[in-house]
Amino acid sequence: MKIDVIGDIHGCFNELHALFRKMGYQISEAGIPVHPDGRTPVFVGDLTDRGPDSISVIKLVYDMVISQGAAKYVPGNHCNKLYRYFLGNNVKQQHGLETTVAEYKALSSKDQQAIRQQFMKLYEDSPLYLQLPEAQAVVAHAGIREALIGKTGEKVKTFVLYGDITGETYEDGRPVRRDWARHYSGDQWIVYGHTPVKEPRIVNRTINIDTGCVFGNKLTAFRLLEEETISVPSNQDYVEEKFRSFDE
Length: 248
Fold this sequence. Notes:
Layout: E1 3-6, H1 13-22, E2 26-27, E3 33-34, E4 40-43, H2 54-67, E5 72-73, H3 77-87, H4 97-105, H5 109-124, E6 130-132, E7 137-139, H6 154-162, E8 165-169, E9 175-177, E10 189-192, E11 201-203, E12 206-208, E13 218-224, E14 228-233
Parallel strand pairs: 1-4, 4-5, 7-10, 10-12
Antiparallel strand pairs: 1-13, 2-3, 6-7, 8-9, 11-12, 13-14
Helix pairs in contact: 2-5, 3-5
């Protein structure tokens, strides 16, 4: 099984199409990107928020994953928040959700209903994280500790959506997270995103492919079994302070 794990898109629809073209995908009769070698795209979550065209990203990923069965998806924390918004929960429209909600509210009532139903089905039908033994990989939005692989429950859900959080926050409100990847010793690749980095970060057999497309850097995919990355530049404005630096 050859897969292309695609990092956090955050509504950057044009960059997503550019990445598919660079990886050799072609548009099928059904209107979705398909690779001539039968590669499977896997979306690592955070499809929406902050970027310019979250609605188009939802439509495309729904068509690829649900309608055509040509791709796979795991949700991110922004996906979880949008899902709770669509459920009718009182979630704060901030940290990017407000941009998706504005797009959504600009639609006709018929189109609103369709997008809401599509996204909720996409979310509900997808696993919290994806085990891909054929590719010797696990895909989880914010990563996963080795001891949690194969398990479910609230502890696992919190980890894969938000990372190894301590419960504390920095002055700017960001949660303090432990660097779980440094302690990973498994044989499978853990492919994740969630925390923007300027370059794909490989530690042990983990790789963070959220290269901050929505913050003006690039959109990245990790290809397996080749173990290589492919990126396209972002069309968005560059925001330096959004990128996490690690003590290597």
